[in-house]
Amino acid sequence: MKSKKLRIAVVGLGEQMCDNLFVPISISQYTKIVAICDVSQKALDAFEHKFGVFQQYTSYEVMIATENIDVIVISSYPDIHYAVAKHAMQNGIHVFIEKPPTRNLEQLNDLVGIAAAQGIKTGVGMNFSYTDSHEILKNVICNADFGALSFVLIEHISSKPKEPLWNLDSTIESFLLAQLIHPLDYILSIGGKYKTLDVHFSKNDYPLVLQIMIEFENGIIGCLKSGSYYPRFRHQVEMISDQGNTVRIDDLANIEITTGNNAIAPFDLKAKQCVTVYTPSPLKSGYSKAGYETELNIFFEHVLHDTPYEHALTDMIKVYEAMEDIQKGMDYKSSRLKTEVEHSTLL
After folding, report:
1. pTM value?
2. Per-residue pLDDT, 345
3. Which residues are in the Gfo/Idh/MocA-like oxidoreductase N-terminal domain (predicted)?
4. Which domains does the chain have, with CATH numbers?
């Protein structure tokens, strides 16, 4: 007996959908693509030239009214994410939204309320948490022989944004939603609730240098270094236990474990070896390495079988609350610096 396939519609045919999301959706054992939607007819035609013929729509309202859809996958601007997801959920359709799901916490809370009232399953595209390397890291730090986690360092840097994105008000707001959301989500998922959050940052919006020190209620100390000053994307994670065991991830792929205890490694170690490096197979698909294929399949399983999915809209509330705290901290320090400069000028 064949299992049911979810009828999928996609909204927003930009770079993220074309390069990273659509192929994993289309090859999933759980899905059947029924419609594509974009406000640009040129984008629709280019998409079909690349991927094949699908039912086209330039209006998501018309598409939802016309098609029998189980899940809509949305990849556009935050305000569009909010509008499309709200309309879809009000019509009983499950939604998967590429990050950032909304522009702000107010919009996010609105969607969370609608999803709860309508019994809708939701997912947010946070692919870094679904890479093979991060799955191995989770297994290592959950191993009793690793010891209690005491320190987490995440470096997440790139060369953008250089200016406001998605019709947002500022480059800083764009940076928080486009870049910082990934490592912030990850460090909060590891540390839990925090007691203090202290922000240090450069004076200029671009290139931006940002460092956040976090003290968690469970005693873990977190350090998040981010910015838009590096010529390429770079993502590194280092976690240290109270026994001095260390695990590192370099650019979502390579893993280094430093330990004298072979029991904590999830792959073969030579006797008495203190440092080991795991490198993924070059035959592994890019969609799998980057986490897109895994996160989408886990979400589709969640819709079909009510299995767990760790990045529903409600799970993003803590991330948006932390981003608000970071923005407030930056605004306060900027205001204080401006006051000090004005005072020194008067003197």
Report:
1. 0.91
2. 46
3. 6-125
4. 6-126+305-318 (3.40.50.720), 132-284 (3.30.360.10)
